[in-house]
Amino acid sequence: MNPKKQQILNAAYMLFINKGYNPSSIQDILDEAGVSKGTFYNYFGSKSECLMAIMESIGSEIRQQRLAAALGMLTNDPEVLAEQLYIRIKLNLEKNLFALYESIFYSQDPDLKAFSVKQYTLEMEWISSRIIDVFGKEAAPYALENAAFIHGYVQQLIHLWRLSSSEELPAEKLSAFVIRRLQASVTLQIASKDSFLKNVKLPSPTSAEAVSIEKLSSLFEAYTEKLKRYPSTQQLVYFLSTEIVADRPRKPLIESVLTTLANDKIIESELSVLVEQLWKHVAIMK
Q: Can you tell which superkingdom this protein's organism belongs to (predicted)?
């Protein structure tokens, strides 16, 4: 990411966390970042755009860390899912995301509302697809319900912990507990065929199953145009675009590139989504 843009995002993030989103003005952001109004508007059209960019950046960091935790592991391992959930909980707490989510929830800005729906959809779809990875295709009719279960369970248990304890939340323990409860819930639903959200689908599919390897290849190739200022990353992304559609893709090389990208700090949200989608295809490569 452009250093000046990152400087503005860092300043805005600190203001939104410490002062609140609504009380913070664009002038506050300019003063905190030490930049001119013109510089701000080079990157953002509004304060809400700035908040959305912060959330996108943190979302990208979460996806990269989830990928790094899963590379080389089996997609159906519940412990991998527990580790990925732990990453989400840990970063939510470290970045104080609950305060930022609250800003969006109470905002009347239509762009922020639409952004919130998109982010929620992405997260529910990701959790749903991982539930199917872990429990198999027979869990598919119940995956979305259980994604909601995970999402709500984590939030409410965090709230209860904060109300009842002054100790630091044991995030790793929490994620392991939630996945154990998920295993019991999914197993029971598969056996009883009991479902509330029958035939309900989210507005836009984003799971790895919804994107073919050929489509990913073309998306990676197209994305290289956005990486002209970062030739090393551009070269890696172009390599993926060609290697994944080769007659005999070299899985170790692809995994090595994915590992590098999972730790690349300049990666933004769109590319991190593609990289995470590719992981699931690579996991089943011979």
A: Bacteria
